[in-house]
Write a structure and sequence with these properties.
Elements lengths: L1 H21 L2 H13 L3 H25 L9 E7 L5 E7 L3 H10 L12 E7 L4
Antiparallel strand pairs: 1-2, 1-3
Helix pairs in contact: 3-4
């Protein structure tokens, strides 16, 4: 009897991942806006701290692999997190080599443990500030 339950759980898990891949950037961004609005103050701090720990190393790795003066245009990455906080899918608004590299750097990384899964988080990278 446990076999069908396992099969059903696996089907639901794979089905939710397929649905995530079908989302547009705008749909994923809407989910990120919604999910961030559900966080309490402690969870918001935990999310921000976990994002900050990823940003600097990712940008350093990308800067090393790019030309001396990369295009510093703004970009946004939406990340879908699983129940452990692992990034399982990303969406990118930006086309520069730096944005593409940063997006690749986020794949498989772990942020905070979200209160619900899947959880969508947004990173806006603006080099002017």
């Amino acid at each position: 009897m446990k076999l069908p339950a396992l099969s059903l759980s696996l089907t639901l898990l794979l089905g939710s991942q397929c649905l995530a891949a079908d989302l547009s950037f705008e749909e994923a961004q809407t989910k990120a806006t919604h999910d961030s609005a559900t966080l309490n103050a402690d969870q918001m701090v935990a999310l921000a701290e976990s994002q900050n720990k990823l940003i600097t190393p990712a940008n350093k790795a990308c800067m090393k692999s790019l030309p001396k003066k990369p295009d510093l245009s703004d970009y946004t990455v939406i990340m879908q997190l699983d129940a452990t906080g692992k990034v399982v899918h990303t969406w990118l608004k930006g086309t520069t080599p730096l944005a593409l590299c940063f997006n690749q750097q986020m794949a498989g990384k772990t942020l905070f443990v979200p209160p619900t899964a899947p959880f969508y988080a947004q990173l806006d990278i603006n080099w002017a500030n």
